[in-house]
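Notes continue from the previous slide.

Worked example: a multi-chain complex. Inputs as given:
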Amino acid sequence: MGKNQESGARGEERAATYLLSQGYVILDRNWRVAGGEIDIVAQESDGRVVFVEVKARRDQSYGHPLEAITHQKAQRLRKLALTWLISHNSWSSPFRIDAVAIIGTGEEFSLDHRKAIA
Amino acid sequence: MTLAKVQTISLNGLSGHLVDVEVDISDGLPGYTLLGLPDAALSESRERVRSALVNSGAPWPNRKVTVSLSPAWLPKSGSGYDLPIAMALLIAQAIVEVSCIESSIFLGELGLDGQIRGVRGALPSIISAQQRGVKQAIISFENYLECQAIPGIELIAFADLRELLNFFQNGQLPIREVNSKVEIENEATKDLTDVAGQDLPRRALEIAAVGAHHLLLLGPPGAGKTMLAERLPGILPELTIEQALEVASIASLSGTNSARMALDRRPPFISPHHSTTATAMIGGGTHFIRPGACSQANLGVLFIDEAPECSNGVLASLRQPLESGVATISRAVGTLTYPAKFLLVLAANPCPCGKYSGKGRGCMCSSLAIRRYVQKISGPLLDRIDIRIFVEPPTRVEMSAAELGESSAVVRTRVASARAAARERFREFPWELNSHIPASQLRKRFSAQKPAMQLLHQELDAERLSARGLHKTLRVAWSIADLIGATIPTLECVEEAYRLRAGTSEIL
């Protein structure tokens, strides 16, 4: 595993921990289909399904991690979310697409949760 | 607060429109949306504002930023919105707290390092902001010098964003030496004493200056036409402060402001080359409509040397501003009006070779060529020129005369008192200058003495004078009367005016 993948995986782990602490239930992790991958699928206490894209960076020297989510990327996330819902037979449930930015390495990091990004 | 609003001003010609710059920072992916019909330079503001803020130690909101410029229907252009956008972002992020900026405007371009740069047209922007009740303007230090002269508005100038942050966070004004308002009086740099002899042209210049009559100088090369024309602004009365600001505003828009201070009281002297285009003369441009030479010469002198060499249409394009005193320019981006109340001076050689004067020795031009040459100055334009004279080369006696001619200062004093007399006479009328007396009033209220009118009517009957020509002659006669202190033009005044008008009729 490369350095970036490693930091990405650790970031997703941290995001999941954070979501659990906020009362979410994790339904799926790294769900992969031909069109791409959803990092985390969680569920809020009111039943809403939340699809979470996690972006982790060591620092901001290349800009804020969430800047890497372009309009196209957001559209793809939307498509993936619908695919997940259909394949899990819950196409009519309310859903939302969030992003979590993690900046920092080791124990020192900051986490930024943005709701309804697409 | 994630919502902030500051004001700036958008310029359309010389008049401005107050524009609200609203910034909203909301959750969502980092992004920047600019609303309100921005042009290319304005759309690039995002990168400038971002770098400038970050490099000045202020944070950039890594959230969804929406900037709205309202009124949304008004197309906006230029880089002057950088500073108001940056300021609104600082307020929205609660980096600075401001209590009363409702009556303030911000105007300036940002450098990537946070430097605040000047913008073109700052002077007319701030003037119209002041007219719209704005009490305070925050501008670049670069624009500060030209805007200082504007009364009734407080200016705060910063060289960069750090100074601005320091002011709004700690209330510290940057300390720097500021030269007080510089007034430049109409001290002629080119003086009439330099001109040897030339009694007739001197007299013609003086009369033209009194009534703002347009002037045609015909003469061989080297006779001193240009020399004389250049000395006309020096004998015009000083501009008032409002007039000086208007002239400097146009210079500021033309981008020639470095050459003109805001309180320069000297009437402008603009001499476009004869190869100039009608667009350069009247004004124009695709995205930004620049004032042309005739607006730069507003309240001063527009001198066109070698007038017959001008290409077709350039001189003709002057007819509209000559008639209305404004230049109206229509382009895809809109229609603009710039003031263009200039005194037109045309200079021309009498024939293509230039030697057809005096005894006409050495002139090889056929009479047809001579006629064709001067006819390039079209009849309708010529008709609007009240004073047409020959400028002969100075004679041997004049050149060797020991005593100097009258200085500009002496002539200027006479012109000023003649203008004062005219102003007094026209107190209850909407014009101030003799050349502006309407024809109906010339017949009713401002005709000349009886014998003088008889002379003019004789000439009219003999078809040597058109109806318009009669009126023009009368207007010049009033200027002559004002110079000699007469209350009504006498026969002598009218005769002189008629000579000045018909002086070149043998070839025109």
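Summary box: Residues 192-402 of chain B form a domain with the Rossmann fold fold (CATH 3.40.50.300). Chain B touches chain A at residues 27-30, 62-63 (CB under 8 Å).
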